[in-house]
Structure formats: structure tokens, C-alpha cells
Specification:
Elements lengths: L33 E2 L5 E2 L26 H24 L21 H27 L5 H27 L6 H17 L4 H4 L8 H6 L17 H39 L9 H23 L2 H14 L2 E4 L14 E2 L3 E4 L2 E5 L3 E2 L6 H10 L3 H24 L3 H43 L1
Antiparallel strand pairs: 1-2, 3-6, 4-7, 5-6
Length: about 450
Amino acid sequence: MQHPLHVHAPHPPAPHGPHGAPVIAHINHNTRHGRNCNGNDTSHSYPQAVPHSSLPKHIPIPPIPRDGDVLFELIMFVFSAICCALQFLIIYRSVFWLPYSFTNFALNVQMIDIHLLIFIGVILMRRLIYTMIARVGQAYLSSVLWPAARKVLQVIMLLWVGAVILICLYNIMHTHPIVKLFYLCYPLSLYFILFGLTVGPFFDLAVFPISDLDQKCSTLLSFDGSPLHNCSTSPEAIREEVDVLKSDINNRMKQVLFNSVFSAYYAGFIPCCFATTMMYYETYWATFHILWLWLGSFVMYLTHCFPVRYCDVMHRCALHLGRWHRLIMPHSNVNWTGNKLWPNESVVKHYDKLYQALNTTNAAEPGNQVHNRFYDLFQNPTRIYLVVLSMHMLMILIQLVQLATAQEWYQSVSMASLLFFNYYTLYKLLRDVLISHRVYKAEHIVKDRDNS
């Protein structure tokens, strides 16, 4: 069965040549009427069709192992829970080795509010429990029944989480000032700003709020919500695909930002916020712990939500989309039209401004900043991975320096635990960079060979 992305609205009839043969209008800036970019007079040339061989050629991405949803949620929960425990260790550490110490544990457990621990634990494990139940439901329910069952599961999970949170808040209210209860509920306002009054994104990374664009293009996505690329020769279909991918990218980035901040807030900041006034802890070290927790979570969510195969879909679409470069010329009588694929080095006029095509095929609208950013970002996704890899390696380097200069035992334990998880993310980033670099380098060689 053909994917819905292959089905498009009827195209307007293409212009016909003198003998009735359909052609696609393309303009070569070296031979068109008027003046070229050097100001020299040139003669007019008729539109020429783009041969099929000049369309972008894609090299498939080899199979890359990727963490499943349940495994990823388990890793994120363990990472957040350990970071939360380390923050409590930084705040409530004890001197258990002294002969007259009142505790035999490294942590003053009796000073930690048990209801606060339950609150944080439920918040951090909500997606893990939901994902495990959802995978069982997907295995035993048909694709027709699963969408309705997923909504029921989300409502049940919301009621359970809400009930536990209300019970914890009621008990916390008796031992802490009322104003601190607002600290616990503050991230919910951020959630409503990003996702609106929807339940799905709170439990599932792959569920996004439905907007007008999503409703219009929902049939262009696969069953699991992942977009697919269509090597279309229709400029309208290419621009429509860009709109779908742009919406999906924005939704995934919202999930990455929200969940990374969410984990750092509840696992790092809340323990400091609810620390008793009689406790003295190093604010400098606790602040850095929150920072490393947020950056580590951000990169882990980023590598999971934007794998190599996903970015390759954006890359293929960007090659079909193309890009236009602004020119300064006296005049031009060739207007850009949205129902044509323009070849490389074409010069057109759009809103009284001149643009030159920079790619093999160009379906983008000249001067459209969304199209320009999309092409610049995904023309070569390796650059994106290199930026993330550089940021992650810099973070690891700073953590190694802090580990080497740590003077207290809890500081060494904290840095060593963070580095353990960051090394795993570093391995995945290095693997993705090497694979994407070799694939797109080979693709560039094939492109140069075809052009020559």
C-alpha cells in the first residue's frame, strides 16, 4: 500500500511547448533575457525541463542500534533518581565515621520528608510506568482499538498521579510554608504554555498536541507518528512535507526542553528548596549538580528524540527543498512560480527581489526564512551532531576537572555517578557522528560525480 505522503492534490496543468509537449519552466541565469549578476546583456532562452537524473540521490542509513522506549525511560528514571539521591546526599550528608556520631548512615535520612520523596518519585517514574503499560497494550490490542485505549490509559494515569500528588501536598502543607507548595506546582504552568490542555505529552514523548497543521497533515505521518520522506517531483508536495516536518521538529524540541528542565527541577532544585533551615550545604556544589543534571538530561533526550534516521528524513527533504540566495541586479522579467522545480543557478524575481538557486533542485519559496533555516540545518545533519558532541565533551571535561579537584568524598561520588551516564551518551553521539559523516560524504561524492 502506498504511504499517504505519496498522495497529493491534483497539480495545475504544466505549460506546453510549441509541439504540445509538456515542459517545466526553468531559467538559466547565464542565458536569460536582461542582465546577469555582472551587469552584462544576455539573450532570452526558453524554459527547459529538468531531467530525472538531476534529482537528488539518497544513500540509505545503515541499521543503527537504538534504545527502545521502555529501556530509554528506564535509563532516564534511574539517572534522575540517582541524581536526586546525590542532591540529598550533598544537603543531608553526615559524619558517620566519627566515634560519637548519632547515625551510622552517610545520609541523615530522618531529616528528609517522606511525602516529598514520594512526590518526586511519582513525578519521575510516571512515563516509565505509562510506557511499560502502553507497550503491553500495543502488543495485545489491534491498531484500530489502540488509539482509544491509549487515551483511556492516559486519563487513568493522570487520575493516579493527581491523587498521589494531592495526598502528598496535603501532608507537606503541615510541615512547610504554603509558599513552597507553589514551587512544586510551578512546572505545570510551563507545561500548559508549551502543550496546552492536553494529557498525552505529559506521559508519552511520541504524543504531541494536535494543532491545525497537524490535523491537516495527520495522514502524512506513519502509524507511530514518525514522518516519512517522499521523493516527490511536485514542489507543492515538497513544501507541504517541510511544513509537516517543521511541526514535528518543534513538537520534539518542546518535549526535549520540557522534560530536561522538568527532571532537573524536581530531582535537583526541589531538594534544595525544601532543605531545613538548620542544614548547611555547599550552594556552589549543589548549583553545579543541578546544571549537570539538566545538561545531561537535555543531551540524552536530544539523542533519543532526534536519531540519525530521523535527521536523515529531514536531510532528504532539504535536498529536494533547496535554497535561494538574494542577488542585487537591475531588473528581471522572470517571476518565481510555486508549481515549478527550479534547477541550480536559476535567477528569478519574487516580490520585486532577485534570487539565485543554490541547489540541484529548488522547490523553496525565495525569501522564506523557514525554508532557508530548514535547508541550512539539515543540508548536512553531521554539523548538528558535531555541535551537540562538542558541548557534551566540554561538559565531560569540566566534570573530570571537578572530579580531580574534589576534596570531599560526596563530591567524588557525585561526579563519578554523573560521568558514568554521560559516557554512555558520549558513545552514542560519537557513533552517530561517524556514521552520518561517512554517509553524507559518500552522498556528496556521488553528487559531484553526477554534476561532472
